[in-house]
């Protein structure tokens, strides 16, 4: 019985990665592989889109009809959760083996999600911890910038007592023993987004 190959479109920003991904996937008779550099129009009919982190998020947020698989070296909790919240269907580290890459694409081509084992562990671990509120994240970012309570209060337009309450909440949720420890833990987990700046009350409902 003849089986129509699944259309796989590689959209990775790194040309070397694109060549490698194409070479690996094209060896599988179940896949029909195209690349964005040579056949950009193939994106519209692709079953699976294999992309780097930024491209994958843009595709997922744009609600493309295909399934989005991100191949990325980014492995922080914040980065992975952001990708999944954006609607990415699969996430595999850039160091993954060819076998795992093929397995991931196969799952997505069948309409299933796929997360590498290390990614699943990260997500599972994050789900067992109480999440920071929007305001706590803002306070944490300012702590990382070296701001004292008074400066944080001024920057966010809240009282010093409220800042102290948020700092206490941050330290409790991160199981930190000091303010600097909280920043270290948050950085290791990727909870502070690169370039993040505190939001206004118009863009987020604070708890």
Mean pLDDT: 87
Count helical runs.
Answer: 9
> Cα-atom Rg, whole angstroms?
21 Å
Strands of the biggest beta sheet: in what spatial order?
Answer: 2-1-3-4-5-6
The largest sheet is: 6 strands, parallel
SSE order, as H and E? EHEEHEHEHEHHHHH
Q: Low-confidence parts, pLDDT < 50 over ≥5 residues? A: 195-207
Outline, from the CA principal axes?
elongated
How much helicity do the residues have?
40-55%
Number of strands: 6
How far apart, in Å, are the first and last alpha carbons? 58 Å
Beta-strand residue percentage: 5-15%
Overall SS class: alpha/beta
What does this structure look like?
- The protein is of the alpha/beta class.
- 47% of the residues lie in helices and 13% in strands.
- It is built from nine helices and six strands, in the order E-H-E-E-H-E-H-E-H-E-H-H-H-H-H.
- Strands 2-1-3-4-5-6 form a six-stranded parallel sheet, sandwiched between helices.
- Helix 3 links the parallel strand 4 and strand 5 (90-93).
- Helix 6 crosses helix 8 and helix 6 crosses helix 9 (179-189).
- The longest helix is centred in the last third of the chain and has 14 residues, at 160-173.
- It is elongated, with a radius of gyration of 21 Å.
- The N and C termini lie far apart (58 Å).
- The relative contact order is 0.10.
- Mean pLDDT is 87; it is low at 195-207.
């Amino acid at each position: 019985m003849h089986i129509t190959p699944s259309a796989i479109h590689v959209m990775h920003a790194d040309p070397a990665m694109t060549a490698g991904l194409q070479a690996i996937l094209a060896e599988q008779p179940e896949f029909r592989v195209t690349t964005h550099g040579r056949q950009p129009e193939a994106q519209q009919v692709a079953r699976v889109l294999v992309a780097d982190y930024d491209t994958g998020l843009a595709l997922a947020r744009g609600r493309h009809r295909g399934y989005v698989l991100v191949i990325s070296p980014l492995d922080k909790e914040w980065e992975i959760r952001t990708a999944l919240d954006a609607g990415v269907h699969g996430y595999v580290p850039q160091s993954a083996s060819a076998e795992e890459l093929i397995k991931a694409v196969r799952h997505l081509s069948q309409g299933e999600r796929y997360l590498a084992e290390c990614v699943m562990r990260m997500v599972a671990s994050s789900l067992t911890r109480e999440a920071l509120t929007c305001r706590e994240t803002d306070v944490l970012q300012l702590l990382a910038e070296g701001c004292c309570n008074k400066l944080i209060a001024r920057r966010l337009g809240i009282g010093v007592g409220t800042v102290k309450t948020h700092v206490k909440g941050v330290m409790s949720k991160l199981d930190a023993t000091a303010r600097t420890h909280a920043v270290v833990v948050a950085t290791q987990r990727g909870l502070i987004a690169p370039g993040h700046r505190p939001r206004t009350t118009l863009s987020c409902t604070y708890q």
